[in-house]
From TrEMBL:
It catalyses: 5-methylaminomethyl-2-(Se-phospho)selenouridine(34) in tRNA + H2O = 5-methylaminomethyl-2-selenouridine(34) in tRNA + phosphate; 5-methylaminomethyl-S-(2E)-geranyl-thiouridine(34) in tRNA + selenophosphate + H(+) = 5-methylaminomethyl-2-(Se-phospho)selenouridine(34) in tRNA + (2E)-thiogeraniol; 5-methylaminomethyl-2-thiouridine(34) in tRNA + selenophosphate + (2E)-geranyl diphosphate + H2O + H(+) = 5-methylaminomethyl-2-selenouridine(34) in tRNA + (2E)-thiogeraniol + phosphate + diphosphate; 5-methylaminomethyl-2-thiouridine(34) in tRNA + (2E)-geranyl diphosphate = 5-methylaminomethyl-S-(2E)-geranyl-thiouridine(34) in tRNA + diphosphate. Involved in the post-transcriptional modification of the uridine at the wobble position (U34) of tRNA(Lys), tRNA(Glu) and tRNA(Gln). Catalyzes the conversion of 2-thiouridine (S2U-RNA) to 2-selenouridine (Se2U-RNA). Acts in a two-step process involving geranylation of 2-thiouridine (S2U) to S-geranyl-2-thiouridine (geS2U) and subsequent selenation of the latter derivative to 2-selenouridine (Se2U) in the tRNA chain. GO terms for biological process: tRNA wobble uridine modification. InterPro entries: AAA_SelU, P-loop_NTPase, Rhodanese-like_dom, Rhodanese-like_dom_sf, SelU. Pfam families: AAA_SelU (PF26341), Rhodanese (PF00581). This is tRNA 2-selenouridine synthase. Monomer. The lineage of its organism: Bacteria, Pseudomonadati, Pseudomonadota, Gammaproteobacteria, Thiotrichales. Residues 25-145 form the Rhodanese domain.
């Protein structure tokens, strides 16, 4: 039976609860996050959608009321703000999502009043849904605890960690996507891990990155693989970073080097950093501005004369692209950067760290080597 506008919500304490967070991760259960948008933006889960009980302004007013007059007054104000007229379309949005995702569950920050109200309103409208016990906070704690235990779990399960290394443009990411048992760290970070690696769409927050990283490893280790594969990365991938114990664990086992001829590396870089990158941006001018900023970020390491030469090559390539429509002229500055900037830096790092290399080969040879670990 629907509540009247003047009444507070009456609760049925027998509505379903769950704290089986591992099941939610493994099965990728769709989640309704009823927190305000500002909370959702600070951190959420990869299978969640934000369908808030209160918008940011309503939440702000209720928060002030809670501080001034206490919980009872805040709950009353919340019901006044989210009255019958405002409430109905929000309930309808929840119902529509549940109709499309029958296994969906919902949560608020602590699994308290907001998710309890949303669950009750849905029940009053004839729709049942499970509420997360402890809400976002408990689920987040579960994922962080798993990340903390992950280095030990990898060892306990006898899973070999394989790092695919190689020079810039060698096709490590493309190879990774063709492999089983892989974790795409750059994909989770939404960043290609270099000065030119930023995508047009923003990176996730550190909280979201950690949540998604934990889920990705949990899903993979649930399959009990003999090995897992990641691309060679630093701890920092753009603005997010890997937990140090996990980073050290991943770097501490097998290292495979992908060996790709320079001509092929130039083509791969052209495809990924020019053709595909330009498609992400709303217009060519925006991409051109991003590239100039990226060149500026490496200017000190590149050196004045070489910086000037690379920029001239880039601007010439842009001029040709805009006048003739082709992108092949970009191969010039790409070749210069690869051979005169990235390759010496790679050689320096290899000499400095002296990491043991287990295998060197082409993409097909690396795939064959990994089969020996299965």
């Amino acid at each position: 039976m629907r509540q009247k506008q003047s009444l507070l919500t009456e609760f049925n304490d027998n509505l379903a609860l769950s704290d089986d967070f591992k099941h939610i991760v493994i099965e990728k259960i769709p989640l309704i996050d009823v927190r305000a948008p500002v909370e959702f933006e600070q951190g959420a889960f990869d299978s969640s959608i934000n369908l808030p009980l209160m918008d940011d302004e309503e939440r702000r007013q209720v928060g002030i009321e809670y501080k001034v007059r206490g919980n009872k007054a805040a709950v009353k104000l919340g019901h006044q703000l989210v009255n019958e007229i405002i409430r109905e379309p929000r309930i309808h949005a929840w119902q529509q999502f549940i109709a499309e995702h029958p296994q969906a569950m919902l949560y608020c920050f602590r699994g308290g009043m907001r998710s309890k109200i949303a669950q009750q309103w849905l029940s009053d409208h004839g729709t049942d849904i499970v509420r997360l016990k402890g809400g976002y906070k408990a689920f987040r704690r579960f994922l962080i605890d798993y990340l903390d235990k992950l280095p030990g779990l990898i060892g306990e399960q006898g899973v070999r960690s394989v790092v695919i290394a190689g020079r810039t443009g060698s096709g490590k990411t493309q190879l990774l996507h063709k492999l089983d048992n892989q974790i795409d760290l750059e994909g989770l970070a939404n960043h290609r891990g270099s000065a030119f690696g930023r995508h047009y769409s923003p990176q996730p927050s550190q909280i979201d990155f950690e949540n998604n990283l934990s889920m990705a490893f949990m899903r993979l280790l649930e399959q009990q693989p003999n090995y897992l594969v990641v691309e060679d990365e630093g701890r920092n991938i753009g603005s997010v970073n890997l937990p140090k114990p996990l980073f050290d664990e991943l770097k501490n086992d097998l290292r495979v080097v992908l060996d790709t001829p320079i001509e092929e590396r130039i083509d791969i870089t052209l495809q990924e950093y020019v053709i595909e990158a330009q498609q992400e941006y709303p217009d060519i001018e925006s991409w051109q501005e991003f590239m100039h900023n990226a060149f500026s970020r490496i200017a000190k390491r590149l050196g004045g004369e070489r910086q000037k030469r690379v920029l001239e090559q880039f601007d010439s390539a842009m001029k040709e692209q805009l006048s003739q429509g082709g992108v092949q002229a970009h191969q010039g500055w790409i070749a210069t950067l690869l051979q005169e900037y990235y390759d010496p830096m790679y050689d320096y790092q290899m000499q400095k760290h002296q990491r043991k290399v287990s295998f060197v080969g082409t993409a097909e040879e690396v795939k064959a080597f990994l089969q020996t670990l299965a």
